[in-house]
Design goal:
The protein has a two-stranded parallel sheet. Helix content is 27%, strand content 14%. It has helices at residues 24-31, 50-55, 86-94, 110-124; strands at 38-41, 60-63, 66-69, 73-76, 103-104, 128-129. It is of the alpha/beta class. The protein is built from 4 helices and 6 strands; from the N terminus they run H-E-H-E-E-E-H-E-H-E. The chain starts with 23 loop residues before the first helix and ends in an 11-residue tail after the last strand.
Length: 140
């Protein structure tokens, strides 16, 4: 909380997340209104999350039931993901002793997931599906 009381520009390095909970909310609430500050995201921000709203240019965000003005610069570093890229995933699956009979992609943005689905099917010959919410699959 001491950071929230600071009156000078500062950098807060936070654990990964989508700015949806935890201590970072107190920091955002206190620091987002000051144009001298920068809110810097280093990872993916899922659609609909506060982090995605900030990256999309929201000028106000709701935190703890209150609207907070966003006057700080909002930026992203795009190359610090902890996830494997598509090539790393293809290599990982290709090195498995027993190849899966099918693969279900349940994480990621729709366009990227679909591109990975096509690559898996084309390069590995393994059926790959992106199930929709509430889909049911029988595994035999």
């Amino acid at each position: 909380m001491q950071y929230a009381r600071m009156r000078m520009p500062c950098v807060v390095i936070s654990a990964s997340g989508m700015a949806t909970g935890g201590r970072v909310l107190h920091h955002l609430k206190a620091l987002a209104p000051d144009p001298r500050n920068t809110i810097l995201f280093s990872g993916f921000q899922a659609p609909g999350t506060r982090g995605a709203q900030l990256l999309a240019g929201a000028r106000d965000v709701k935190i703890h039931g209150e609207w907070v003005a966003v006057r700080a610069e909002v930026a992203r570093i795009g190359n610090l993901s902890a996830h494997g890229d598509y090539e790393e995933l293809i290599v990982w699956v290709s090195r498995m002793e027993r190849k899966p009979r099918s693969i279900f992609l349940v994480h990621g943005e729709p366009a990227a997931a679909d591109a990975l689905r096509v690559r898996i099917a084309d390069r590995l010959g393994i059926p790959c599906t992106i199930p929709r919410q509430d889909d049911h699959v029988t595994l035999a």
